[in-house]
Structure formats: structure tokens, C-alpha cells
Amino acid sequence: MDKTTSIIIGSDHAAYELKEKIKAYLSDKGYSVEDAGTHNEASVNYVVFGKKVAGAVSSGQYSKGILLCGTGLGMSMVANRFPHVRAALCSDVFSARMSRIHNDANVLVLGGRIVGDVLAFALVQTWLDTAFEGGRHLERIQSIDN
Ligand code: RB5
User: Fold this and answer.
1) How far is the CA of 60 from the centre of ligand 1 (A)?
2) Of the residues 13, 39, 69, 137, which is catalytic?
3) How crowded is residue 64: how many other Cβ atoms within 10 Å of its Cβ?
4) Is 76 in the pocket of ligand 1 (CB under 6 A)?
5) Separation of alpha carbons 46 and 112, rounded Å
6) 118-141 in b/e burial notation, b at 16+ Cβ within 10 A?
7) pLDDT value at residue 18
8) Which residue of 2, 19, 49, 118 could cross-link 10, Cys pair, CB 3.0 to 4.6 Å?
9) What pLDDT, on the 0 to 100 scale, is given for residue 4?
């Protein structure tokens, strides 16, 4: 598996539809996407899917993950409990960009009830295309886990 082009994604029912659209968008761009669920619009507990994606990033199995729920808040709370996970809830392109440059965010979180499809694609693309700047920011992010 090529970690640079493989992404794990998960959502609850509230963002299932947006997850499916993002999956299609990423597949079109040549990314390989692992879908951790949920797989339909039946009501589920977002924590289950947040743990699956955050766990896979925390363990190093995937270098990047995307999580979605209605607001993105619950998924952020879950994901940021995991060691080495830096999950960024973004609804503007500047934050998505800065979450990579300064924070080396390895999980992007979106609110399916907050952002529309076109903005979501722009957030995902910006986040994936932007590199971590390192330098003084490396020590800062390392101190989160230390
Ligand atoms: C589900 O109704 C909703 O609570 C969930 O998607 C999420 O927004 C939680 O933070």
C-alpha cells in the first residue's frame, strides 16, 4: 500500500452522503480510499467510526484519514484522543491549508451539515496538496504527544 495515495475515511449517518461523494472525488483523482463505514444512512454512533479511522492513523497503518459527522465536532473529540493523531475540523480553505503547514494534521474532519459538496472537495484537495513546513513547528507538534 502506498501511504501517500492511500486514505482511510469514515463517517456516521449524518455525513454518509458527503462521504460517498468524497470517496468518488478521491478515486477519480487516483487515490486509493479505504472506507471504514458507515455504509448507509441508518442512525449510528459516530464514535465507532471515529475510533476506526483514528486508530488506523494512530498506529501508522494509514498516514492520513478523513472523518465526517454532522458537525465534525464529535469526530474531532474522538480522533484527538488517539496518540499521534492531530485532527483538524475545517470549514474554510485557509484553516485546511494551515492545519497542514503548521500543525501537520493527519486527520481532516468535516461537518456534513456544515459544508456543501464543492467546498468539501476544495477542503480535501487543499489539505492533501499542502505539505507540513516543519522547522519550529516540528518541536511544537512533537510536544503534543510528549
Ligand atoms: C448525529 O445526529 C450527530 O450528533 C453527529 O453527526 C455529530 O454531529 C456529532 O458530533
Assistant:
1) 27
2) 69
3) 21
4) no
5) 12
6) ebbbebbebbbebebeeeeeeeeb
7) 98
8) 49
9) 64
Query: Cα(117)–Cα(125) distance, rounded to whole angstroms?
Result: 12
89-140 pLDDT, tens digit each: 999 999 999 999 999 999 999 999 999 999 999 999 999 999 999 999 999 9
Distance (angstroms) between ligand 1 centre and the Cα of 102 equals 28
Q: Which ligand 1 atom is the nearest neighbour of the CA of 13?
A: 6
Q: Which atom of ligand 1 is nearest to the CA of 113?
A: 8
The answer to whether 102 is a known catalytic residue is yes
The alpha carbon of 69 and the centre of ligand 1 are apart by a number of angstroms equal to 5
User: What pLDDT is attached to residue 5?
Assistant: 83
User: Domain map of the chain by residue range?
Assistant: 6-145
Cell numbers describing residue 73? 465536532
69 lines ligand 1 (CB under 6 A): yes
* DSSP annotation string for 11-77: E-GGGHHHHHHHHHHHHHTT-EEEE-S--SSS---HHHHHHHHHHHHHTTS-S-EEEEESSSHHHHH
Fold of domain 6-145: Ribose 5-phosphate Isomerase B; Chain: A, (3.40.1400)
- In the residue annotation, 137 being an active-site residue is answered as no
